[in-house]
Every structure is written in C-alpha cells, then in structure tokens.
C-alpha cells in the first residue's frame, strides 16, 4: 500500500501555513502544520515526517536554530526546505552548511517549491 509523504510546515504566519497546506495537499501529500519550532519539537511521531518546509524568522527558536537542534539528534532528520523574506548570505550559508535541502525566498515560487519537494522526497 502506498504511503502518502508527510510534509511538516513550520511557519508562524497563518496565511502562509494555509497556502502551503493547500499546495501540499494538491500535490497528493499529507501535511502537519506547526506554528513554531517549539511546537514541532514537542510533537509526537516526528519520525513520520518525510520533508519539512520551514520559515527562517519566527518568534522563539528560528528555523536555523530548529535545524541545529535536529542536527544534534542521533536519529536522521527529514530534508529541510527553508523559506524566508529575509534572505541574506549569512543566513543562507548557515542553512545550507547545516544540511538544508534548499533555501527559497518569499514570496515562494510555487512551481520551484513543488520541484524542490519532489526532489527532496526522492533524496
């Protein structure tokens, strides 16, 4: 039986979470929505996540800090696709050096995002 990939969407902006949720569902994937990095870290069944769409700038832990926490764990982490409207070289380098699959600017180009998702899920 085919298991639909599960995509975690971690973004403090409700409208962006909802738009990404619609996009993920339209691609035939499942989604789990999180309002913060802390909410994601407190969630059960994280091992069921196949890919993550993560905002960089959020109250509390940033997306980069979430990546750092996940990198310290002994269990494998799913591919992370970062999205930000605050794109700078230092942040991009931190995300990519931390193992990010992709780093996209907001507003996100949905075609590019879908391509990244498909590639990350094959990875």
Give a description of the structure.
41% of the residues lie in helices and 20% in strands. The protein has 123 residues and is an alpha/beta fold. It has a single domain, classed as Rossmann fold, CATH 3.40.50.2300. It starts with 5 loop residues before the first strand and ends with a helix.
Task: Set down the secondary structure blueprint.
Layout: E1 6-10, H1 14-26, E2 30-34, H2 37-42, E3 51-55, H3 63-72, E4 80-84, H4 89-97, E5 102-105, H5 110-122
Parallel strand pairs: 1-2, 1-3, 3-4, 4-5
Brief descriptors of the model:
123 residues; alpha/beta; Rossmann fold; five-stranded parallel sheet
Provide the CATH architecture.
Answer: 3-Layer(aba) Sandwich
The tally of helices reads: 5
What's the β-strand tally? 5
Give me the CATH fold name.
Rossmann fold
- Can you list the strand order of the major beta sheet? 2-1-3-4-5
How would a crystallographer describe the biggest sheet?
5 strands, parallel
Global structural class: alpha/beta
Shape: globular
- Taken together, the total number of domains comes to 1
Provide the succession of SSEs: EHEHEHEHEH
Radius of gyration: 13 Å
Beta fraction of the residues?
15-25%
Helix amount: 40-55%
CATH class: Alpha Beta
Q: Output the CATH homologous superfamily.
A: Response regulator
Rounded to the nearest angstrom, the distance between the terminal CA atoms is 21 Å
Q: Give the averaged pLDDT, no decimals.
A: 94
- Report low-confidence residues grouped into runs of 5 or more: none
């Amino acid at each position: 039986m085919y298991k639909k990939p599960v995509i975690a969407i971690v973004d403090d902006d409700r409208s962006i979470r909802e738009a990404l949720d619609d996009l993920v569902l339209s691609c035939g994937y499942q989604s789990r929505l999180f309002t913060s990095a802390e909410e994601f870290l407190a969630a059960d069944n994280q091992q069921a996540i196949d890919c993550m769409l993560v905002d960089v700038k959020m109250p509390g832990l940033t997306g980069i800090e979430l990546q750092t926490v996940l990198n310290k764990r002994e269990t494998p982490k799913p591919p992370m696709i970062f999205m930000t409207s605050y794109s700078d070289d230092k942040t991009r380098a931190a995300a990519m050096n931390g193992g990010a699959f992709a780093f996209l600017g907001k507003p996100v180009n949905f075609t590019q995002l879908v391509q990244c998702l498909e590639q990350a899920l094959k990875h």
